[in-house]
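fwd from M.: "can u put these together and see what the complex looks like"

so here's what she sent:
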Amino acid sequence: MLTLPEKLLFIIFAILSIYLTYIGFSQIIVAVRKGQPEYYSRSNRLFERIREAFVRTIGQTPVLKSRPLVGVFHSFIFYGFTFYLLVNLIDLIEGLLPPSFAPLSGSPISSWFRLGSDVLGFLVLVGVIFFVWRRFVSRDTKLERFNDSVLLQAEVRAGGIRMDSLIVAGFIFFHVGFRLFEAGSLLAAEGRLDPWQPVATLIARVVGFGPDRIIGWHIGWWLSLGLILLFLPYFVRSKHIHIFVAPIRLGLGRRAATGEKIGSGALDPLNFEDENVEQFGVAKLEQLRWSQVLDAYACIQCNRCTNVCPAHETGKALAPSAIEINKRYELNSIRATLAKGAESPRPVMEFALSESALWACTTCGACVGICPVGCEPLIDIVDLRRDAVMTKAQFPQDLNSAFRNLERAGNPWGLAQDNRKDWAKEIAAPTVEENPDFDVLYWVGCAGAYDPSAQKIARAFTEILHHAKVRFAILGNSEKCTGDLARRAGNEYLYQNLGAENVQILNAALGNRDKRVVATCPHCFNALANDYPQLGGKYRVMHHTQLISELVSDNRLPELILDENITYHDPCYLGRHNGIYDAPRQVLNGPKRIIEMQRSRENSFCCGAGGAQFWKEEEPGNTRVTENRFQEAQATGAQVIAAGCPFCKSMLSSSESAGETGAPLVLDVAELVAENLRRVKSKLGIG
Amino acid sequence: MKILVPIKRVVDYTVKVRVKPDGSGVDLNNVKMSMNPFDEIGVEEAIRLKERGIASEVVVVSLGSGACQETIRTALAMGADRGVLVETDLELQPLGIARLLKALVLKEQPQLVILGKQAIDDDSNQTGQMLAGLLNWPQGTFASKLEIADGRATVTREVDGGLETLELPLPAVITTDLRLNEPRYTTLPNIMKAKRRPLDVLQVADLPAEAVPSIKTLKVQPPQPRKPGIRVSSVEELVRKLREEAKVI
């Protein structure tokens, strides 16, 4: 127990610390609550949310998944710290109240408690030493490496994150270290060894035994618990606040009103009903939805997102983590005035990211997929693009013609609507009117309709449908662009106009029949499956590789006999955004299994086309995204790169290395299956 | 300074034009219509002059059916201040339009009229010149650059083999070429605001001008479809076919 002056001092110190911490926390809460309302629910199914957050936090899976070794050391600190909540509480009681109140004394779990605090405390020290070594000695470049062109707050440029890390690490090290010293000193003073506290016993041996060693207990108590009080007011501005915010953020995923989870493929719609609104998208911090404000405090600044970002990887000015970090530093500096009701002083584009960064994003979703705390920087980017396009009309010139073509011709190429069915001049593709008894509606998409390379995909898939005797129909000339590129480029208004027309056409074509809609383009697939429910269009959408896989298992298509070495490129809007990884692989695994690239499935690397990049010049960097990906595919030694997206096919086959002699061919899964059909037929002598 | 910008509603450039089966004209049923692209350049140029503080008001005018209001709203969303629709069902031809525009110019008293050099539907390329003639104003046609200073317009025009620069005293008529500017993308707040900007609707009878067509359309027919080409296997075959089948050598 402490002496009376010590107790009084501690209580005064505690009140002061808790008061300052409370002010910091309440300012953050005000800033978050100033955020705009969400479209999807982030609070329904509360029990499931709590369970999800709990399981992921306790299991440490989000941390272990992407960086296993780091994850192990992180879990040392996590489990140790969690246990130390209890340790600190008991220490507090033991320090302030008479020994008769000591909660665990004499209880059988007391030994286990001592063992836990001893061993876990030691593991925390090991973890912290590892992290300090990693950041300051081995200098892991994954942690803080940003391309020179990335916009960073001055404080961050000056090494703010390193300083923050050092303070946090120092706190953890000394807090836990002095707790062990405290326990060791107590043993030393009492002159005994405790087999349940091997580390403390070792410390006791080092400090030497004697009743005067009780002074070590006092020092240890003050430095372990007092340090918490000293650290708390700083804690709210440090990256360490993630220990509170991250578990909460993990439970705040988007869900529909009915409860099902909303994946990264869907964007939150804007409402254009109110004609007095003059701001669309996000220009200022307080125009962010509240979850986006919270992201700034959930972010632990680990840079996982930046490490996997195709734009950053190819030398561009975009770093998703920098957006969250810059938001955090901005909020830290203005949250006191925000809490008093002032407006944020400057636009987000002045501190969070540069214009080139804004337009470098391919919306591939890698950042959202890998974030261990559930942040969604991609949503920020789209919201900022909305402001740039709809409120300010300041966007890359190239997109001007894409938008105009969408408005006028219903396709980004600006080709005549009446020519939309020209791809099927030499192959039968009945329209809904011509074949009202269809089972499957084939959504061709603008690429399939107009782009010569993608027309081959559409024809190959049609050939497959005919062979498998699938009763299908197309919309013909009444189909229009889904609006995916407009939406991902921030032109929500144009997207909603196109979407509303398409939903009307689809609803008329499908009636009340529960028909399937199949798309050969993952961007169309994603719009139909994830965007259109917001516009009242709910369809059973599938990707052509899923239908082909089904037809093969039903023996309506022959097994693969192609013996080429094939590697498969996961399109972002099929894989990461919609979780379809297996169907194309099932189709392509024939006599030879496909050769996987290093970055595949959820770790797939973008081709560079998404987020309207296909329709503009790539932002400045050191290489093209496509080139980076093509070289990876080429390194597998495959003869064929199979893709499941006309834009991936187009990008990859136009990369610099694709032009070299002997470079692998880029083909769609449907083209390979159609080629397989031809080979099977000629083998059987019926071709 | 006030600028008047006449705009025409035409079949959109992305539409594959169909001729009515009876040959009486172009089929406009369910066809996407939009502002003549050269006129859009005219609107953009006028708005830029206003943004630079040179012009004080930009008035757009369109002649034709009530549907032209939509085209005028597009120009208002780009940034024009006011719209005028001269409603008529008459078949409008360049001379008739130029006469109606002259009447409007006398009413509105602009210092500058900026028109597209031609409309992409009939490709007449006459209205601007006729208007200048009727008004007895100087004209700078096919402008690829326009500067206004001290009551004079300096117009750079693209002519065969180079650029010609003219200086005209105001008031004047300017017609736009493709390279004068790239029209802006309208922002959503401006689209909303455009709905509240004034748009006056006049009838042809309200203007002291004759717009009766002076030319009669006899027949409209689509161009002959091109015959598909054939692939020849050798130079000899090509020469033989050119001589025997095409009879051109």
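replying to her w this: Chain A has a mean pLDDT of 94.
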